[in-house]
Amino acid sequence: MLPPPCLAAAWTTSEPAADAGAGLWVRPSVHGGAPDRAPLRRVRRIGRVEADPAVTGPTDAPVAGAVAPGGAAAAPTPRFEVEAAGMDIVGVGAAGMVSPADGLGVLHLFCHVGPGTDRVRLGAAVASARHAGDQVVTVSILGHKADVGLVALGPDLRRLRALQGAVHAAGCTVTASYVSLTEVSEYAAGIPDEMRQARLYPQLPPSEKPAFCFYPMSKRRGDTHNWYAMGFEERKELMLGHGRVGRRFHGRVLQLITGSTGLDDWEWGVTLFATRPDDLKACVYEMRFDEASARFADFGPFWTGVVADLDEALDLSGGVR
Fold first, then answer.
1. Rama region for 291: left / alpha / beta (φ>0; ψ in -120 to 50; rest)
2. Range of the domain at 303
3. Staple partner for 44: which of 13, 199, 214, 230, CB 3.0–4.6 Å?
4. Are strands 148-154 and 105-112 parallel, antiparallel or unpaired?
5. Same domain for 207 and 307?
6. pLDDT tens-digit map of 74-91
7. Please, what is the end-to-end C-alpha distance for the chain in angstroms?
């Protein structure tokens, strides 16, 4: 079944109604058609908008510099919020969905931003994905590995790939990424349907858990410790013990374990949200003493940050107008 068509973009305005006739004009891209024939869409603005004489002419970009009818240039500067995006930035409806039988695709993108990053274009890319039904969690990343992180969840891999392309087109440099699927572990067969649905279709981010980290991991298959050489019941028993350790952090840490065997370089992606950063540290530390981790787990690099709306994340990076 094809995804629903996207709608026109719209920003909301906090300015007086008398100014509502002003605003910005953009030309959404058209899948399979000539972009310059697409109708101009008026975009209403929030807060202060300043003219930018460098922005001129119509564009076929999904979100571009604002172009008023007749060629007058205007471009938004800081502080935009998209209420409903849908300028056909995904443009994949005619190709059909690429979806798992159960659950969602998950795409982690870790990006550097800078003076060349277009705040409005990036915001519209995120809002368009959300308007299409995907979840996008935005994170301000600490350390040198990235400035901003995006965690996108949705049923269609084409749409997630389109978001990745739109992020790149907005001037972000993707320094790392991870592709996975939500799943219910084979060791969790028979769990209540409510728990099953929460794992396959999580709602993120959780409230009041701003501390964030992500890391990939795999099970060892070495000569001494080989997870895959053991029988199912032995593996299940170890994983049940592993889960008991994790449940000590119930209410303090929410974890999303996504499967990536055959999809990325590691076998699982682990995304953690916590009330405080030391909750993340304590959870990972204590679980490493569990036998399933101590004998059989290999861990990849970590990304740590703070869940924030996109504007705040970009402001914290210090490099985006």
1. alpha
2. 97-321
3. 13
4. antiparallel
5. yes
6. 334 333 343 333 344 444
7. 41
